[in-house]
Specification:
Blueprint: H1 2-7, E1 14-15, H2 19-27, E2 32-33, H3 36-41, H4 51-78, E3 81-86, E4 90-102, E5 114-131, E6 135-139, E7 144-151, E8 157-159, E9 164-167, E10 174-177, E11 181-183, E12 190-197, E13 211-214, E14 222-225, E15 235-239, H5 243-266, E16 273-274, E17 281-289, E18 299-314, H6 315-328, E19 334-336, E20 342-351, E21 354-367, H7 371-378, H8 383-389, E22 400-404, E23 418-422, H9 425-430
Parallel strand pairs: 1-2, 3-23, 4-5
Antiparallel strand pairs: 3-22, 4-21, 5-18, 6-15, 7-12, 7-14, 8-11, 9-10, 9-13, 10-12, 16-18, 17-18, 19-21, 20-21
């Protein structure tokens, strides 16, 4: 700033209460004031008759400074560089913590180990079909037989196809004629025709002489009787829908929808979030069965429309609490290595509107080593002296040192030209350097 101010032939004062800045400002000739009002009242900004002479001096100074800057930059470009790789001492750490995710929380509560969460929703639709388990006898074939119509008049009587005749005792069993027949004229004249039971099943198998009723106006002109039993009515075993079938089918479909809910809810998540399966709830909006209870059917179908709900939790919040908990398990002078953190969800328990996560966290803790301190230890020393200087640090093994150019064999004097990095056992095996001799 001093060079820039002199180059522009300006006068600048500083307003600060920082003692360090005050000392630096006075050393370089800047007036310093504790407030803006006092600075405005000061006489530092009045023009000076020697301003021209000062300008010439400033120009010369700036030229010299620029040349020095070029020389410094050139030296910096050709100056040696070095890299020091250290492997701090490490030890494994592990802990079991409980983290509460609460939609009412707005930020992490480190003391209570509570993190924010949010509810997410997604629409679901599904259908399923199952075979019915229960069975019962159901009517299968209709019984058939023959009846005789007897004329009660002296006229010819036509009996149309589909004329209904029936039994009269006990449960009424009805039959229909399968073809048209004409009863000749004269009292006692007869005509025979085939009939079939209107209902399938065993009840249509009636004994002889039980079919004796004609439905309709023909009953005034004719009598009817079956001189032989009817036969052929049968039953068979068929599935039947029960309430247990409905409950079983619904449970099956809801289980499937619950599995689908996780993938659907994941589409609603933001980066870094996850949904514990224990928080997922499927709320049924509509359910439609294709059969009724006690209806004869070999299968039962169901369609469901539902809403899937779940709690979205940010994994970074869980990691932050886990890292904090591991820090409490760490020895003095060591700290957890965030990149080594591994988490495993042991359990998730829904408690009201929140969920309690039991999390096992493990990783490694590494010795804390200050990079600037390392640069100060090794600057200007030979490679062997630098390695010896670092032997007092909490390291797993001898540090790896590389100097460029290699023939120099000595660490740079400029700390900025010394790169200090840390590594673990795994990184050492993958990135070995030859030691400088």
């Amino acid at each position: 700033m001093r060079r820039q101010v002199d180059d522009l032939a300006m006068k600048v004062a500083l307003v600060t209460r920082d003692r360090r800045i005050k000392a630096l400002a006075r050393r370089h000739g800047f007036p310093v004031y504790p407030s803006l009002e006092l600075a405005k009242q000061g006489a530092w900004h009045e023009p000076s008759p020697a301003a021209g002479r000062w300008g010439d001096l400033i120009s010369v100074t700036l030229l010299l400074g620029f040349m020095l800057l070029l020389l410094g930059a050139g030296f910096f470009l050709v100056a040696p560089s070095a890299e020091v790789k250290l492997m701090p001492k490490i030890f494994p750490i592990e802990t079991l913590i409980e983290v509460r995710a609460d939609p009412e929380a707005e930020k992490i509560d480190w003391a209570a180990r509570t993190i924010p969460a949010r509810m997410v929703e997604a629409s679901l639709e599904g259908s399923a079909q199952i075979p019915t388990v229960s069975q019962k006898d159901v009517p299968d074939e209709r019984a058939k037989g023959r009846v005789v119509f007897t004329n009660r008049t002296g006229e010819t009587v036509k009996v149309p196809k589909g004329t209904v005749v029936a039994t009269s005792a006990g449960t009424i069993i009805r039959f229909v004629t399968l073809e048209e027949v004409t009863v000749p004229p004269g009292i006692g004249a007869r005509a025979e025709v085939e009939v079939e039971a209107m209902d399938a099943g065993l009840r249509g198998n009636v004994k002889a002489f039980l079919i004796n009723t004609i439905e309709g106006p023909l009953a005034l002109k004719l009598r009817v009787i079956n001189t032989a039993p009817t036969s052929g009515g049968s039953v068979k075993r068929r599935g039947v829908v029960t309430q247990a079938d409905k409950e079983r089918l619904k449970a099956l479909l809801l289980k499937r929808l619950h599995r689908e809910a996780l993938s659907r809810l994941e589409g609603e998540l933001e980066e870094g979030e996850f949904v514990p399966p224990e928080t997922i709830e499927v709320v049924v909006i509509d359910e439609i069965y294709d059969k009724f209870v006690d209806e004869v059917a070999d299968s039962l179908g169901l369609k469901i429309r539902a809403i899937a709900k779940g709690m979205a939790i940010n994994m970074r919040d869980v990691e932050a609490l886990a890292c904090s908990a591991l820090g409490m398990k760490t020895k003095e002078g060591f700290r957890p290595v965030p990149e080594s953190l591994q988490l495993r969800m042991e359990k998730a328990t829904v408690e009201g509107e929140s969920v309690l996560l039991t999390v096992r966290a493990k990783g490694i803790a590494a010795a804390e080593i200050d990079r600037d301190f390392v640069r100060g230890l090794v600057r200007g020393k030979s490679v062997e002296e630098a390695r010896e200087s670092l032997s007092g640090l909490p390291l797993e093994g001898s540090p790896l040192i590389r100097v460029d150019p290699p023939w120099l064999g000595r660490m740079p004097w400029l700390p900025l030209r010394i790169k200090v990095s840390k590594m673990t056992n795994e990184s050492m095996t993958n990135d070995q350097w030859p030691m400088n001799q």
